[in-house]
Amino acid sequence: LEAGAMGCAVIATPRGGTAELISSPELGFIVQNEVGLESALRELLVNTRLRQEIGSNLRQKVLVEHDWRVIGRNALVLLQSLMRYPPGSGGPR
User: Between residues 38 and 76, which one has the greater pLDDT?
Assistant: First the structure.
């Protein structure tokens, strides 16, 4: 998240939440081993336009989906919906 927020192109392994954040090749590289890491590094070192495009795409996704204001609003909407329809109430009728 931090690298993406700064507009950096990211190379990561599929551990934790990285595969959810980097969900397409336009957002970064998910590598499985040293060979994949070497290939991704070479591609980003040689291709400045790709490096900048991936960094920009990832930054946009992080700002839209992981901004604290967005997370706070989503949490508030969830809490308000739970208050209207408490667990076990069956929801709206």
Answer: 38
